[in-house]
Each structure stands twice: as structure tokens, then as C-alpha cells.
TrEMBL record, chain A:
UniProt xrefs under SMART domains: AAA
Gene3D superfamilies found in the cross-reference section: P-loop containing nucleotide triphosphate hydrolases
GO BP field: transmembrane transport
PROSITE patterns cross-referenced by the UniProt entry: ABC_TRANSPORTER_2 (PS50893)
Domain ABC transporter residues, every copy: 2-220
Entry keyword set: ATP-binding, Nucleotide-binding, Transport
Pfam families (alphabetical): ABC_tran
InterPro entries (alphabetical): AAA+_ATPase (IPR003593), ABC_transp_ATP-bind (IPR050319), ABC_transporter-like_ATP-bd (IPR003439), P-loop_NTPase (IPR027417)
Organism from which the protein derives: Streptomyces ruber
Protein name: ABC transporter ATP-binding protein
From TrEMBL, chain B:
Main location: membrane
Name of the protein described by the UniProt record: Nickel import system ATP-binding protein NikD
Pfam families: ABC_tran, oligo_HPY
GO terms for MF: ABC-type nickel transporter activity; ATP binding; ATP hydrolysis activity
The species this protein was found in: Streptomyces ruber
Catalytic activity: Ni(2+)(out) + ATP + H2O = Ni(2+)(in) + ADP + phosphate + H(+)
Length: 221, 330
């Protein structure tokens, strides 16, 4: 289970953007979290991805509470969750070639030798050609860069995937292609998914169930 | 019935970027289309297909390494050969109102909406005198349904929807005959998308049919379906299909395999992607650029398909036969 229990989080403890949010994703399950933009759902996604320490509440990964966040989180927890954001240009190091961008988490966890095989495998899955892999972010389109960011999120074979508005900037075909990659990965590995977004049609089609922001935050202040 | 004179008439427009090392990128190639008064034409396609470059070409905002050819007539002015002085004094704001992709970035962050609107009103509508400018600015805001109570706010104090309305208010001030909306709904929630396009539509529709024309560039097919009278599908720098919106989104559906693929990718349709990636604009194949991804391709497609009946394809889906063709493929 990936479980968020009574999470309150934000950037100013006096005015948290997430209040008392609870949500659970079972292994292999795909849950869509729907909410209007600016409601705080991206902050909750960052908590679920161990990237933002909540003011209060608990994140449990397979029963173990997360006590440390970001780079201080223990490796086995950090590598259990892969994350993709809305804006690939903000989340990709502009100096790295796509091939190094995808391999970055392997290098950071001392598994550099797996990179060539794993990158080739994932590049094929997300539809990036060898020519594109040699380019830097400013030399590819948003859609191509997001393909690389998805490959990077999958490179450590996470048990959980958090996709925060992954396709909001993308055209219909690239959207369908990236969702298909996620679903193939989940079918092969049994990974669970938390997909955060505002597009009802998309999340209802993609996920096993959808939850609304008001229900997740329970209305309790 | 005679056709009304188009607001914008684009003929043979091409844009090439000259890259270091002598490489040429064919961003826009031989584009033809019209926008009639009171009409909304939606230009759709994947990111990188050339649609934003086309918008920049119309506004005279191409980078220095771009070369354009062809014509884009707006009244008696050709936008492509116009000099920068004409473009900045007569075109941007006065002949073309730009509704930008990211209003928050387009508005000046350190000034209130009121001050920006007043400045635009004074500059474009030629209104003089403090009280008159003030009234005109309030009226301009009201026209775009921007609440008067928010006029003294700065752009960052506005929601995405209100920032979009503020930007639309500025775009409308000059009473330009053409509105150019560049991805106006990116990042907006669905109900806000609906509201934004409905408001844009309202500025195009006038009772006497002499309204302005709207060219909307978008990758949001649902927004295009909601607002457009006609659809132009762009692929690899060319318009591959120009169709009536009702028949494109409804029956008989797109006739070009690319347009058909785009619609099939929608989550409320088949949700299946078009295989492969669009080609590099710097290394386009000889014949039809869609051939490597096309399930109807034959040897004939090694030659560039001519535009016939609004469709650039050697084997378009027959207009009356889309359903049958879909069944065979299913
Ligand atoms: S010309 Fe040929 S390859 Fe191109 S879209 Fe038509 S059928 Fe497909």
C-alpha cells in the first residue's frame, strides 16, 4: 500500500495548501486524484513521492512510515517511488543528454553499469530514437522530453508511480502514448499508480478508480 | 451567396530556419488558408508541427535566422513583407489582437491590470483625458468579463481564468479584425477551458455577421471542437487537412489518416496513440511526411501528395465511408 494518512502540508505552516488529506493506493491499483488547479493536489503528489515533508500526518510505503524526505530518505524508500511532473523543462537538467537524464537515478544509486541496457530498453518503450537520446533538452520537443522524463521515472523499477499532470501540456497522441507506456510497465511489474490531474475524461479512462480532492481532504479543516 | 472577403488570407506561406552549419529547418511549408469574418479556424497538431512558428510569422515575431516566403493578406497589407515599423505600429494590437498562451507571463507583473488596460486603451483606441481613459478601461475589462473589482490587482494576484480574461481584454482593445489565440487554454481546468473558448467565440459572433475572425492555435482537441467552424490540421509544417469542424469531429470524420489518428487518441475515443514520432523538420522525407506512421501508406506515398478537396493524401478516407473503413480496421 501507498498510504497518505491525514496529511497537512504546504509552504507556510500557518496556511497549509493541503489539509488533512487521506488516500490509499493498493499494489497494482491505479488511482486518479481529480481536483481543480491550485487546490494543492500537486503538493500532495510531492508528499507521496517523498519530495515534500508534510507538516503533519503520515505517508506509509508498504506499511513502513516515511520519516525522512528527499535525499535524506532511505534508499529503499526513495527508489520505490517514481515520479513524473507536468513540466518536463522544469524537472530535467538542461545540461544532460537524454540518455544521461534517463540514467541519472542509476548513477545516483551506484548502479551505473546497468545504464546502457536499461536506457536502451526504456528508450524503445517510450519511443525515443538513438538520435534523440544524444540530444539535450533544448534540442527536443516537450513531448520528446516528457518521454525521457517518464523513462527516468521507470529506470529503477519503482513499485509506485506518481504522475502529476504528466500529460497536461501534451497533444492527444503523445498523451495516449505515454499512458500506454505506464500501463505496460504496470502490467509487467504490478506497480501501483497515483495519477493526479484535472482532466476527468482522461483519469476516468486511465485509472481503476478516481477520487475527488474534496473527498480526499474530507472537508475537515 | 457570395463569400465574404476573408479577414486573413494566407497563400503559399513557408518559413525556413537557417541553422549553424548551413542546415535548413522547414518549419512551415506552402500553407494556404483563409479566415472569414465571424469565423473561427482552429489550427491543430502536435507540438513542434510548426503551428507556433506560423503564428509568429503572422505577427512578424520570427527570430533573425528565419526566412519566410509567400503572402498573408490582412486587408490590403501583406504581413509577410511588412517592415517592423508597420508591424509594431499597425499590426500588433490594431489589426491582430493576440490572446497569449500564458497570460501571466504576457501581462506586466509589476503593474495593475487597470494601469495596463488604461495604457492600452490610450495607445490603441486613441482615447484622451483621464476620466475618458478610466471609463474606457473599465468598459474594456467588462467586455472580456473581467470583474471591475479586480482591476487594481497585479497579475500574480489573479487566478488563471481571470488572468486569461485580462489578457483577452487587452487583445480586444484595438478592435482588431483578427484575433490570434495561441494555445489559450493550456494548463486551464476543463470548465475554465470551456468558459475561455465560449468567451472567445462571443467576441467572434456578431449579429450582423461582420465580426472579427479568430485563428486559434491549439493542441486541445476538445477546445477546438467546442469553438471552431473549420479545422486546419498541421503535420510536419504543412496543412494536411482543412475541413468543416462538424464533419471533422462528427460524421464523416477526418479524411487524412493523421487527423483520424489524432481523434482516435482521445481518451473518450479509442485512446490509442499514433505509432512513432513526428519527423524532424530539419530532415523531412521526400514524399508524404506521415508515411512512416501511416497504416494506409503505399508506394505512391513516396511522392508528395497534392492537396485535393482540402486533403493532402494519396489515399484519404472516403468522405462517406469512414465508418465502414473503421470497421475494417477494427
Ligand atoms: S499520402 Fe500515403 S502515407 Fe501520407 S497520409 Fe496519405 S496514405 Fe498515409
Amino acid at each position: 500500500m501507498l498510504e497518505l494518512r491525514a496529511v497537512t502540508a504546504g509552504y507556510d505552516p500557518k496556511a497549509p495548501v493541503v489539509r488533512n488529506a487521506s488516500l490509499a493506493v493498493a499494489p497494482g491499483e491505479a488511482v486518479g486524484l481529480l481536483g481543480p488547479s491550485g487546490c494543492g493536489k500537486s503538493t500532495l503528489a510531492r508528499v507521496a513521492a517523498l519530495l515534500h515533508r508534510p507538516d503533519s500526518g503520515t505517508l506509509l510505503l508498504d506499511g513502513t512510515p516515511v520519516r525522512r524526505w528527499r535525499h535524506r530518505a532511505p534508499r529503499e524508500q526513495r527508489t520505490a517511488v517514481g515520479v513524473v511532473f507536468q513540466q518536463p523543462r522544469l524537472s530535467a537538467d538542461p545540461r544532460l543528454r537524454l540518455t544521461d537524464l534517463i540514467a541519472e537515478p542509476l548513477r545516483a544509486t551506484g548502479r551505473r553499469e546497468e545504464a546502457p541496457g536499461r536506457v536502451a530498453e526504456l528508450a524503445a518503450a517510450v519511443g525515443l530514437t538513438p538520435d534523440l537520446l544524444g540530444r539535450r533538452p533544448h534540442e527536443v520537443s516537450d513531448g520528446q522530453l516528457q518521454r525521457a522524463c517518464l523513462a527516468r521515472a521507470l529506470v529503477l523499477r519503482p513499485r509506485w508511480l506518481v504522475c502529476d499532470e504528466m500529460t497536461a501540456m501534451l497533444d492527444a497522441s503523445t498523451t495516449a502514448a505515454l499512458v500506454a507506456v505506464v500501463e505496460e510497465y504496470r502490467a509487467a511489474t504490478g506497480a501501483g499508480l497515483l495519477a493526479v490531474g484535472h482532466d476527468h475524461t482522461l483519469l476516468r479512462r486511465w485509472c481503476d478508480r478516481t477520487a475527488h480532492w474534496e473527498d480526499v481532504t474530507g472537508g475537515t479543516p | 451567396m457570395t463569400e465574404p472577403t476573408p479577414v486573413l488570407s494566407v497563400r503559399g506561406l513557408s518559413v525556413r530556419f537557417l541553422m549553424p552549419g548551413g542546415r535548413r529547418v522547414a518549419a512551415v511549408t506552402d500553407v494556404h488558408f483563409d479566415v472569414a469574418p465571424g469565423e473561427c479556424l482552429a489550427l491543430i497538431g502536435e507540438s513542434g508541427c510548426g503551428k507556433s512558428v506560423l503564428a509568429s510569422a503572422l505577427l512578424g515575431l520570427l527570430p533573425a535566422n528565419a526566412q519566410s516566403a509567400g503572402e498573408a493578406r490582412l486587408g490590403d497589407l501583406d504581413l509577410i513583407s511588412a517592415d517592423e515599423r508597420t508591424l509594431s505600429r499597425k499590426v500588433r494590437g490594431r489589426l491582430i489582437g493576440l490572446v497569449p498562451q500564458s497570460p501571466a507571463a504576457h501581462l506586466t507583473p509589476v503593474r495593475t491590470i487597470r494601469s495596463q488596460t488604461e495604457e492600452t486603451v490610450a495607445a490603441l483606441a486613441g482615447i484622451r483625458g483621464r476620466a475618458a481613459v478610466r471609463d474606457a478601461a473599465r468598459a474594456a475589462a467588462e467586455r472580456a468579463a473581467f470583474p471591475a473589482g479586480h482591476l487594481d490587482r497585479h497579475p500574480h494576484e489573479l487566478s488563471g481564468g481571470l488572468a486569461q480574461r485580462a489578457a483577452t481584454a487587452l487583445a480586444l482593445v484595438g478592435d482588431a479584425p483578427l484575433l490570434l489565440a495561441d494555445e489559450p487554454t493550456t494548463g486551464l481546468d476543463r470548465d475554465l477551458v470551456d468558459r475561455t473558448v465560449d468567451e472567445l467565440r462571443r467576441h467572434v459572433d456578431t449579429a450582423d455577421g461582420t465580426g472579427r475572425g479568430l485563428l486559434m492555435i491549439t493542441h486541445d482537441l476538445a477546445a477546438a471542437e467546442r469553438i471552431a467552424d473549420r479545422v486546419a490540421v498541421m503535420y510536419a509544417g504543412r496543412i494536411v487537412e482543412l475541413a468543416d469542424a462538424a464533419s471533422f469531429f462528427g460524421s464523416p470524420g477526418p479524411r487524412h489518416p493523421y487527423g483520424r489518428g489524432l481523434l482516435r487518441a482521445l481518451p473518450d475515443r479509442a485512446f490509442t496513440p499514433i505509432p512513432g514520432l513526428p519527423p524532424e523538420l530539419g530532415a523531412l522525407p521526400e514524399g508524404c511526411a506521415f508515411a512512416p506512421r501511416c497504416d494506409r501508406a503505399t508506394d505512391a506515398c513516396a511522392a508528395l501528395p497534392p492537396v485535393t478537396g482540402g486533403v493532402a493524401c494519396h489515399h484519404p478516407v472516403p468522405g462517406s465511408d469512414v465508418r465502414a473503413a473503421e470497421d475494417v480496421h477494427a
